[in-house]
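HUMAN:
Could you generate one sequence with tokenized structure?
ASSISTANT:
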Amino acid sequence: MKKIILLFAFLQLAIGSENRIKDLVTIKGVRDNPLIGYGLVIGLNGTGDSGGEITSTSLKKMFQTLGLNPTTEISSANVAAVIVTAKLPPFARLGQKIDVIVSSIGDASSLAGGTLLITPLKGGDGKIYSVASGPLSIGGLTQGQRFATTGKIPSGATVERELQVEFDQKKAVRMALKHPDFTTAARIEKTINQELGGKFASAKDSATIDLIIPPNYQRKVVDLIAIMENFKVVSDAKARIVINERTGTIVAGGDITLNHSAISHGDLIIEIGGEEGKKGFHILDEKTSLNDLVKALNAIGTKPEDLISIFQTLKQNGSLIADLEFI
């Protein structure tokens, strides 16, 4: 019988563990920026678009820019209309290469073997920040060439415009917690102030911490961030259980304990914090953790769907103090 799998998230960002500040926060202005563009992929072996106004019009305009002036509609199964996307890294400089993703928007069956023509990539402000082109890499596809309508061009775009961020001139820096939590925010504030020897950090809410640049780090903001992001902080978070009903996998965010309760589900009867010797009962210690409960349920052959129902009921009656999330 399929066993229930319980995975406790005792990883780098586990509840109650020490983590570097750099793993807990992002810094305002230091992020990727999405880019998008429309282009054509040529050189396909009859697997391109079967026709359509968008592809035909694009081909006609392309020939016009090359000095040709076709008078009739142009169609070719060796061409596909595509959307090109990329991420502009923070502090990207002119000439820097970035990867691009190319995805078909027509009825092309495959982009394998194709080459992307020069495609300008724009940011959210409508300005061109990069230009992409080059041969596509589809990867080793099997089972009927699945997902062959999306490809990648490693280092396929060149940065043509820089984002102007005078980071080293900043007088203050704002940090945002990746997982907002008042306790963690307060701990980060306390740790930074202790390490820097003054009141420089201030937690504004569960997700925001403002940092005033100390006088001895003026024009040395990069040095300050490099030091500060390696400070260790004990992170905290709400108790949370994520359940994947399709696979029967349960991921818990910490050592969650259960309050005194009795569980009756079909032929199954379990009492947490009960007295030994009760007939028909499986008795568990009153400080039983979620992990202990799952082990006990596995031992007596409980099915994953039964455990999920048990968790929902324990949550409803207050015996399970944790948020449940289904994916």
Q: What stands out?
A: The longest helix spans residues 182-196. The chain is about 20% helix and 30% strand. The chain has three domains: 18-29+166-234, 33-159, 240-326.
